[in-house]
Protein: Co2+/Mg2+ efflux protein ApaG
Organism: Mesonia profundi
Amino acid sequence: MIQQVTRGIKISVRTNFQGTYLKNYKKHFAFSYRIIIENQSNDSVQLTSRFWRIKDALSKNEVIEGEGVIGKKPVIKPGESHTYSSGCLITSPFGSMSGYYNMVNFTSTRKFKVLIPSFKLSAPFAIN
């Protein structure tokens, strides 16, 4: 599990290879990831949007931006956490993802970014 803390918000990521699929007559490798966002600060925060950079060993990078995560903008109180799962398709058995969440501190009303640590996507059969 990969972990990183930014301004009292701990991000933990675990990935899994889900298999290969044909999409538009091209082989893709499917990965799922589970993220735990834990509020270790003294203030309630809300996740408002996300930014992802997906790197594929064989093709160009892809950038994903949008509101919330999986249709939600969770409010996370001190000592609480929010967990969600999602996934991606890439065209090689190796890749990586990184990014950040935009958040709002409810006490100060200040916006801030929480870094998502870079994590690898790798199919087990392709590991040396």
